[in-house]
Amino acid sequence: MTFWTLNETDIDRIAIGVGILGTGGGGSPYLQLLIAKALLRQGKRIRMIRPADLAPDAQVIGLGGIGAPTVSIEKMEEGNEGIRVLRAIEAHTGRRVDAVLGDEVGGGNGIYPMITAAKLDLPVVDADGMGRAFPEVQMTSFFVYGQANQPAALSDSEGNTLVITQAKSPEMLEKLMRTATVAMGCTACMTTAPMTGDFVRRFGIAHTTSQAWHLGDAVLQARAAKTDPVAAIERVSGGRLLMQGKVTDIARRIEGGFVRGSLTVAGLAGDQGRTLTIDIQNEFLVATEDGRRLVMVPDLICIVDSETGRPIGTEEQRYGLRVSVLAIPCAPLLRTPESLRMMGPRAFGYDFDYTPFGTATVAHPVAAYAEPAATPIMTGELT
């Protein structure tokens, strides 16, 4: 077994990459970047492990923020929400958590579990359940393929902590957690039911933190070389530039614990005369031009600054921004009939079926997995 021990330059790269993979949602990674770097300077360590390095019976939980991204940039977390939900699950199950991961790699949630892991000296699994960000709790490959509905837990910045001990379906779990999140101020930390290492290896989307690192590295290298960072994102992601233009309209509202609305981008230069409209539910869902759907969930619609390649989330969009809109094919596991029932267009209320964009993307681990593990990542009873 090998670890990838992160340093501050890794965090810089990952923050850019998870912002791109966030497809507008998952929360801004900036605050999580600052916290992660501060913990490293305090002597804490953030250790990534590949899914293949998990023992079959390891106890793994997903950690992340839940709520509206526009709220999370104003209502900051207290810092120990992740520890509270983790301890609540341990107390309920009577078993220690051996490793954590992010249910979604996109946005700030791609870094969120690293903070709790650093404080508790736990490893972080280089995998997630989306390969991007999605707005609803049940929209993960884990739930598609049989993750338990309970126990789940929520905690907010005031210390309020809730454990859900029974939910009849993943969709009901989403309703319960969303309602509680609204009561907590539209932002909280969440975890879903523990998973075994074997389950994560089989049904997680592997090496998505590595994918984020590669994307961020490509952007930073392009900036240093004074070349086009958008072209670098295309090259590394397997995606394609849809349009370069200017944001000419943005409509956002907080409704039911989500950010909903639409975004309009008018083409510039070679795209002059074109107009893209993008639907929003925390994330960018469907991109349409002249009534023709170009890209749709679960494939990724990513918006970055045209000059720097910096990802721009739904909460940051505003009139006049010069942006590049990219489409990136999703992971193969999201294109199965089972996944599309939970994450395809009809799951968001659209009356059309999924049309895939390009060839599904498979992420690869970074070359930095070199530090020998001191102990195996295994499960154990609480004492």
From TrEMBL:
The keyword DNA damage does not apply. It comes from Fuscovulum blasticum DSM 2131. Keywords: Membrane, Transmembrane, Transmembrane helix. Residues 9-165 form the S-Me-THD N-terminal domain. The chain crosses the membrane at residues 14-40. It holds the Pfam family S-Me-THD_C. This is DUF917 domain-containing protein. The keyword Protease does not apply. Gene3D superfamilies: CV3147-like domain. SUPFAM superfamilies: CV3147-like (SSF160991). Residues 169-356 form the S-Me-THD-like C-terminal domain.
